[in-house]
Amino acid sequence: MIGSDFDMRTRLARLFRDAVVSGLCGMAAQWGLRWARGALGILPSFQPYEDLQRQLAEALGASPPAALQAALPLLSGALIWSSIFAWAYRWIPGRSALTKGFAVTGFAWLLTGFVLLPLVGKGVFASRVDAGAWPAVMMLAMLSAYCLTLSVVYGRLRRGGAD
């Protein structure tokens, strides 16, 4: 019985470790693309991350400290979403990590386009930004960078693990 509890804790710790490492890699890919977007001046009027943080501050009635604002994307991408992804991995459609990554990208893009962007006042797929389809395309690229990297790294780590 004790050995079984130890095995379960070890397995969960490895699962969490793989989720966090994958999430950090996904965040690095997304941040690289986000940096390039800023450096190239692509869609400067469309800032969904800042809009989401502004919405959060309004909901809380106060602006979170700058350190928390900076850490929020890292916490959500490297801990929360990656842990949900790791938990759901076996049920995500697709045989390979890459096809699972495409499935998650599509789901995340639809969720962002139909729920998150309207919540921050940008309309469905940011239709109120007056930039045509470019915000939706940009969100697809950003989400692809995160989701595909997350999935491929996670799949690789899980294949290399003892579980």
In short:
The chain is mostly helical and 163 residues long. Helices cover 77% and strands 0% of the residues.
Order of helices and strands: HHHHH
> What count of helical segments does DSSP give?
5
Largest sheet descriptor: none
Q: List segments where confidence is low: pLDDT < 50 over at least 5 consecutive residues.
A: none
> Distance N terminus to C terminus?
19 Å
- Broad shape: globular
**Strand residue content:** under 5%
Averaged pLDDT, please? Answer: 88
* Estimated structural class: mainly alpha
Radius of gyration: 18 Å
Oligomer: single chain
Q: Share of helix among residues? A: over 70%
- Strand runs, count: 0
Describe the protein's architecture and organization.
It is built from five helices and no strands. It is mostly helical and 163 residues long. The two termini are 19 Å apart.
Itemize the secondary structure elements and their pairings.
Blueprint: H1 2-40, H2 48-60, H3 66-88, H4 97-119, H5 134-160
Features:
163 residues; 5 helices
